[in-house]
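# nightly structure sweep
# worker-07 picked up a monomer target from the shared queue
# config: single-sequence mode, recycle default, output format = structure tokens
# input follows
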Amino acid sequence: MKTKFFTLLVIVFSVFSFAQANATPEGLAIKKSVSYFVNSIKSKKIDQAVNCIYPKFFTVMPKDQMTQLLNMTYNNPFMKIEVQNMKFGNIEKPELISGEYFSIANYYLTLKGSVGSMDENMKKKIGEMLTSKYGKANVKYNASEGSYLINAPMKICAISKDKKSWKIVFAEKENKSQLTKILPKKILDKI
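# output follows
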């Protein structure tokens, strides 16, 4: 019995140690930048969130248009979206390409979208749109609250010149055509 307990303890310690060793300074810096971006959106500081975006992205989408898009999404009076939780998935080791470091990072947001002020037809259309984007298993409707609970898998590309200060670009397949103008092919191939 003591041997089994000791073996289990060693296994748990090893897994914990590996997880800590896997937390590189670059990975931690990327998490910090992404968390800052998400927390800016959560606290409705959209201009602050826009400043987290890779400046070259504004050559394909003007900064004021990006600000407007985020405002329409997160400050919409018809569908209030609240960020409830955030978890990180895989963060790739940064690759140096043409003087900049690039890393693909996955994270997961739990969002609550309140649609109580909409008519039934609009609620259904919103539900269909959310299901189309995130998948049926990731979208739940709560009729008593008039809200959708969304588990949103997200992918970004973090970019840095010094591996300390990171800017982000949404690295979703539907944005790939825009990203061809600003990201190296080697990184685009991972999206």
